[in-house]
Amino acid sequence: MARLRHAAGPLCLRFLQDIGSNRYKIVFHNVQRLMPHLSDILADHSTMAADILAFVEPWLSQTDRPVLERFNVVSRANCPSTPNSYGSIIFSTSLTRPEGYRFTSVSSGRNGHIDATVWTIAGIQFAMIYSHPTVKFEELTSFLRTIIQSIPEIPTVVLGDFNLDLFSDDRLLKFFLQYRLKERTSRIPSTDYGTKLDACFSNILELDAWFFESLFSDHKPICITIPRNEKLSLLDELDILDEPEFFTRAFNSLNGNSKV
After folding, report:
1. Half-sphere exposure of 186 (CA within 13 A, CB side)
2. Which residue among 51, 71, 210, 227 is buried most deeply as judged by most CB within 10 Å?
């Protein structure tokens, strides 16, 4: 790790252990089965430096007992029968405990489902989403609307695996812009297949988010940091427009302006 930090070339990765304790540190990840990869997570110093670990697709059964040193399980939704993509799990350190967490899931078609885990930290509302690949866009946004509209205009983070490629389809960007929630990660793929299915939307000006690397999942983790013990600023229209062409085009289209 020290050798990587002092390498001659510029580093593309950023490490959570380099972030001070004055910021909340959250990792979201589609882990694609948790139990076989606990040792991989424990060996990842950046992930283990987080305050909150929020995982979708853990494929947990009632009898599974996932343990990560320094973390407690604060929210868990198991698969109802045969292990599949249903469910989520959230780990937290004793210094940063989420409040008011709840899990909601709706079915879609034969095997599809949309899961949401919602929690609050120090007045910041989080919603973690997993949308099955068979879910239609209209079903996804209808579900998201019920989640977002229940949240007052406070600092908000909506993150997840939406199973919609943001590189080829900007409808989700337009949807979130209606609620002044802006995608905060860089425009790089979030999967090994060159697609961007995972994203972090927020209205918090001071929030920072980036993709890390995973050795066991096709999805990259998202690292998020937010200042502790500070009054947070909410994005306004100018902040939303101060974006690369990728996002500005979605904002202009939303407002009936064809120019970029």
Report:
1. 10
2. 51
Give the pLDDT confidence of 21-33 residue by residue, as tens digits: 999 999 999 999 9
Could you write out the DSSP letters of every residue in 17-45? GGS-TTEEEEEEEE-SSSGGGHHHHHT-H
DSSP letter at 190?
S
d(CA 221, CA 247): 22
Query: CA–CA separation, 79 vs 86, rounded Å?
Result: 6
Task: Please write the tens of the pLDDT for every residue from 178-222.
Answer: 999 999 998 899 999 999 999 999 999 999 999 999 999 999 999
Q: Which helix (H) or strand (E) holds 249?
A: helix 245-254
- DSSP code of 234? B
Q: How far apart are CA 140 and CA 162, in angstroms?
A: 8
Class of domain 13-233: alpha beta
Stated pTM of the model: 0.88
DSSP state of 231: P
